[in-house]
Amino acid sequence: MILPYLGQSFKNLFSKPVTEAFPVGDAPKAAEGYRGRLHYDPELCINCGMCMRVCAPQAITREIVPLENGDQKITFTYDMTSCTFCRMCSDFCAKKAITLTDDYLIVGSAHEDFLVTGTFIKTAPPKPKFTPEQLEAMKKAAAAKKAAAAAAAGEAEKPEEKPAAEAAAKGEE
Amino acid sequence: MLQNMIDNSMKKSPWIFHINAGSCNGCDIELVSVLTPRYDAERYGFKLCGSPRQADIVVVSGPITMQSRERLRRTLAQVPEPFCVVSLGSCPRSGNVFKGSYAIDGPLEKYVHVDVSVAGCTPKPEAIIAGLAQAAELLEKKRKEARK
């Protein structure tokens, strides 16, 4: 009757303990596809704001600071104490700037320990050479020039016609 | 000498009291699994106790609902000084997906100073053990300061 149990206990004598030695040794690896601490790559971000839209607990904030030369300094902040780790932001990110790592040891006292931030500078598009007013003025000037040229040509043609007409009249006489 | 002995034994047995302030039970299950043979936090003396009067570390989970608010306040008032507060998961720190609800009166920071936070929804048992270990260290420091 106790033979099967004896076998089990004999096996257990030589097997490793089930208990993880964690706080002493290294943390064991998380399972594949585990959704842990978020990783944000500001180099890839295009500031579309899709992650903020799909975030259910509103854990994502964005700060836009306009710079003097027309550029914008954009800072995204992901609050891990507010995150549900649903991976919606990562799924909706068109540029794959957000990924969820397998780092699950998100422990700390200060609020800063839980923030994942990234900053990038969005450069302004190159300024056009002329303003619309200047372009309008240039167009007007060009039209005036053309009209003047046409008028000059008309005047130049008339004197030529006149002698010919006179000559014809003379010939008739 | 006797005081030394007591200090040493206190260091090795930080008892936990768990308050569920409207949690979805995810964090609660993980906290209980921390005490099971696989993760076995009890080898470091972390023992779940039944009364806040015996607790050294208070673990709070859940986004502090209106119903649990008064009970949370009353329970925290019964814990003897010095004690540590550990917030479990995202809910006590921010309200998580329940943020802005009329039934929520968080965050936990409003009622008591949170010493250690374990983020995650839910945190892995290893993360909880790491948080508890950090809280135990803090508790020791607090005890020393209180003795001075």
What does this structure look like?
- The complex is a heterodimer of chains A (173) and B (148).
- Chain A has helices at 3-14, 50-54, 88-92, 132-172; strands at residues 38-40, 60-66, 72-79, 98-100, 107-108, 115-122.
- Chain A has 173 residues and is of the alpha+beta class.
- Chain A has two domains: 33-122, 2-Layer Sandwich (Alpha-Beta Plaits); 128-173.
- A three-stranded antiparallel beta sheet of chain A has the order 2-3-6, with no helix packed on it. A two-stranded antiparallel sheet of chain A has the order 1-4.
- In chain A, a hairpin with a 5-residue loop joins strand 2 (60-66) and strand 3.
- The longest helix of chain A is centred in the last third of the chain and has 41 residues, at 132-172.
- The model of chain A has no long low-confidence stretch (mean pLDDT 87).
- Chain B has helices at 2-11, 26-34, 66-78, 91-94, 125-147, and strands spanning 15-20, 47-48, 57-61, 84-88, 116-118.
- The model of chain B has no long low-confidence stretch (mean pLDDT 91).
- Chain B has a single domain (2-147), classed as Rossmann fold, CATH 3.40.50.12280.
- Chain B is globular.
- In chain B, strands 2-1-3-4-5 form a five-stranded parallel beta sheet, with helices on both faces.
- By secondary structure, chain B is α/β, with parallel strands linked by helices.
- In chain B, helix 2 (26-34) crosses helix 5.
- Chains A and B meet through strand 5 of A and strand 5 and helix 5 of B.
